[in-house]
Amino acid sequence: MFTLPDLPYDFSALEPYVDGSTMEIHHGKHHAAYVANLNQALEQAGAELAGAPLEYLIAGLGRVPEAQRTAVRNNGGGHWNHSLFWRLMCKGGDAGVSADLASAIQRDLGGFDALREAFAKAALTRFGSGWAWLVSDNGTLRVTSTANQDSPLMDDSGTPILALDVWEHAYYLQYQNRRADYIEAWWKVVNWSEVSRLHQSTL
Predict the structure, then answer these.
(1) CB 174: neighbour CB atoms within 10 A?
(2) Is the pTM above the cut of 0.90?
(3) Domains and CATH numbers, the chain
(4) Secondary structure in 3-state letters for the chain
(5) 179-186 and 112-125 are packed helices; what angle lies between their axes, rounded to 10 degrees?
(6) Are 188 and 90 in contact (CB under 8 A)?
(7) b/e map of 82-104 (b: 16 or more CB within 10 Å)?
(8) pLDDT in tens, 52-84
(9) Contacts of 193 (CB under 8 A, 6+ apart)
(10) Which of 19, 31, 89, 186 has the fewest Cβ atoms nearer than 10 Å?
(11) How far apart are CA 23 and CA 5, in angstroms?
(12) What pairs with residue 144 in β-bridges?
């Protein structure tokens, strides 16, 4: 059975960029619902998938019985995406970008300004709900986006090292329909030390 991970900081820790009320609802209601629905789907799928790691499930959805596949895709993806998302933020942000990551951003994307521009475009042009991603594909960095709770792991298009939730529940209480303002503010809380660690793990 999967469980809801604790946040690595208080609900209000990311203010004024991400408000405490949004964090409390986002984590305690939305993420918790993905966990509960995932566990229910896996119970229905039978003993064959019991104890399977989450990455194993969402990166190999063909292993999941067809009757439960959509539920595992949506809720397993939601659980994995959010579990990563919480770790990628920290109070006051963090400037601890490793030399390897900085070099890769310059080499593959043209520098940090270009990364921010490409990432904002991916987040803004994702119609409806979804995610923007920075992925490492065998060490090469690329910006992409996915719909709903899909992940780059699902189509083997790279390992996510930075992620932004652009579902309305992630920002609507504070930013209403101003997704661009939310994206701009979010950079203030990025945990670059964690992004660097994830990047290093893909090399």
Answers:
(1) 18
(2) yes
(3) 20-87 (1.10.287.990), 99-201 (3.55.40.20)
(4) CCCCCCCCCCCCCCCCCCCHHHHHHHHHHHHHHHHHHHHHHHHHHCHHHCCCCHHHHHCCHHHCCHHHHHHHHHHHHHHHHHHHHHHCECCCCECCCCHHHHHHHHHHHCCHHHHHHHHHHHHHHCCCCEEEEEEEECCEEEEEEEECCCCHHHHCCCEEEEEEECCHHHCHHHHCCCHHHHHHHHHHHEEHHHHHHHHHHCC
(5) 150
(6) no
(7) bbbbbbbbbeebbeebeeebeeb
(8) 999 999 999 999 999 999 999 999 999 999 999
(9) 94, 96
(10) 19
(11) 14
(12) 133
Q: In which residue are the tokens 């709900």 written?
A: 129
Q: Which residue has the tokens 């060490």?
A: 139
- Give bridge partners of residue 94 from the DSSP assignment: 191
- Give the number of other CB atoms < 10 A from CB of residue 72: 24
For residues 79 and 184, what is the distance between their CA atoms, to the nearest angstrom?
Answer: 25
Phi, psi of 76 (to 5 degrees): -65, -40
Q: Tell me the residue type at 54.
A: L
β pairing state of 140-147 and 159-165: unpaired
**Tens digits of residue pLDDT in 35-44:** 999 999 999 9
